[in-house]
Specification:
With about 270 residues, the chain is of the alpha/beta class. The chain is built from seven helices and eleven strands. β10, α4 and β11 form a beta-alpha-beta unit.
Length: about 270
Amino acid sequence: MAESSAPSGWAGGTFGAVAECVLAPNASPMTLEGTNTWVMRDPGSSRSVVVDPGPPDEGHLAAVAAAAGDVTVVLLTHHHLDHAEAARAFAERVGCGVRALDPAYRLGSEGLGEGDVVAVGDLEVHVVATPGHSSDSLSFVVPSERTVLTGDTVLGRGTTVVAHPDGELGAYLASLDRLHALAEAHEITAIWPGHGPVIESALPVLDHYISHRRERLEQVREALRTLAVPLSAASGSPGLPHRVVEIVYADVDPVLWPAAELSVRAQLSYLASR
């Protein structure tokens, strides 16, 4: 879910020694060119891991199945439909389970959460809890590639929406700090996002994401001063989020304002709790 909709020519492809990105045909202002479905396998193995099968489009699912071959497991970064809607149908098609943090999206008995390691052949995928965009958002670190699959937590272009009320800004800021620490420690150098192009240099993008959120918070504070609304009342006025969007997101395409309003609601809730 993006706050930037300008096209980039992104079409997926092969990355590193283990990954292929199959781009779903669900382009929109919120999904950029579409959902990135990631197929990963150890080069010495025929077995694969599929991350975020995406929407229930037959052509897309056939392309993912062709790229994936023998699928061991489907993993979900989070429950939003543009990532997860086809997960069960795809898993049943290829004969595997679905692992997710949200039990409603699992197929089989295994869940997925912080600290889990999914190993298929010599490929290891380390699960890092990164809530904030949604309450169940996970990121997947691939140590052999020093990369991280971020779902919607970090996008390949633009910035993401904190999907209030399920999403929560304090948790999101903590998740960005956690990813930033991994990048500073050189445990990750690249980002394979859920939408938009691959990011080859993780650290400057994470720096931008963190500073952008802080700047937006200050802009929201200033908007509240302009509107003469005290912080203590910021989360209790039904029409206030839209009025703040008109001020703070004036430079954003109005087609994205409904999504921006979700982020503003998260910002107001965060400020009111401080």
